[in-house]
Protein: Aspartate aminotransferase family protein
Organism: Marinobacter salexigens
Amino acid sequence: KSTPTNLSRMLEKRLKTVGPTSVLFYQEPLHIVRGEGVWLYDDSGNRYLDVYNNVPSVGHCHPKIVEAVCRQMAELNIHTRYLHGAIHEYIERLLDTMPSKLNRMVMTCTGSESNDMALRLARHWTKNHGVIVTEAAYHGNTSAVTEISPSSLKTSEPADHVFVIPVSEMPQAPDEAKTWFLDKVREGIQTLNDRRYGCAALIVDTIFSSDGVIADPAGFLKPSVDFLQSKGSLFIADEVQPGFGRTGDHMWGFARHDIAPDIVTMGKPMGNGFPAAGIVANDRLFASFNDEVGYFNTFGGSTAAVAAGSAVLDVIEEENLIANSKEVGLYLKNRLTDLAHKYEEVGAVRGAGLFVGLDFIDPSSSGTPDPAKTSKVINALRQNGVLIGAAGKYGNTLKIRPPLCFDNSHADFFLNQMERAITETR
Ligand code: PMP
């Protein structure tokens, strides 16, 4: 049982072992002991609706994934240095969901590793070093990838070889958004050329999760990507967040923009919690890299990771999770938009499928972002049995991103608790 005394003892022990680098959620941290579907349970048996976690994307502890991983672990779990048919089948299946020029895949363990390798491929191919990113993006935690993750830089400015697009200033109207983003990419290429780095790549999380969820207008990236590619730079679609059906229309977020990336990176939901991630590109890109640099990833593409990945694809299909994401996501977005009309502290609602962002604003100062209110609502929701987080340049966007098996009754529970939290925190 969790009593206040043993919670504080646990916190003390955490500080002495894990230390302060790994930050806990909530003013009153949670001790979660079990998960099932969209629900998490603490050590007192309290149930929480998980509206935060897109890693166990087909549901916490989904029996099919658990069974597939356990079965494989009991038989063989080994690296990719021996032939194993399952990885070929898995990769074939995954590549079938991509544009045809994306015809090879290397498996890794994390999104960070995939983006790190994407940078290496792009730099190797273009012989350029500069990268264009968006202003609050997060692409991972290696040293190279931290440099292109403005949201990780607490005190320093982005490095000289990084050009940052202030996407929070992008106009909403479709034509204006397209032109605005294109102008920024043009300026980015010019700036990186002037600084003598050249532009290796534009990397974008295609649902802009850390930037506060920018789903619309769908297609606004197309002119920019066409232009970038015509200049010989590469487009890296970071699908770690939007991939595997999250946005409701397609398997991949980039498909909403009608573009063919040069490199696609993925992770998080790929193994439903078992570490599985990957990078997809054209064979010529990999070949040119391999001529000079080797790549091996001990745990990437292990037989157990492939078992997890294959089971995830099965469940997405069997349970129609992409269609569910679209349907329930639309219901959720519409009901949240009703809340925006009802409560003056709720600003814009944006999203695609089961990835929705909702801004809290200060109504007394003509809509200034209100991260303090957002934080209060997040903590109130935690007390009311809902787990959720924030994103965006100002930290005032509620990031609504539940497992894809979320249904309308879960949405209703969430919406009721949201109304309660909004009024309780006034
Ligand atoms: N890209 C994006 C868009 C992410 O959100 C994350 C993780 N939050 C990463 C990359 C890094 O993935 P990982 O934590 O698996 O290294």
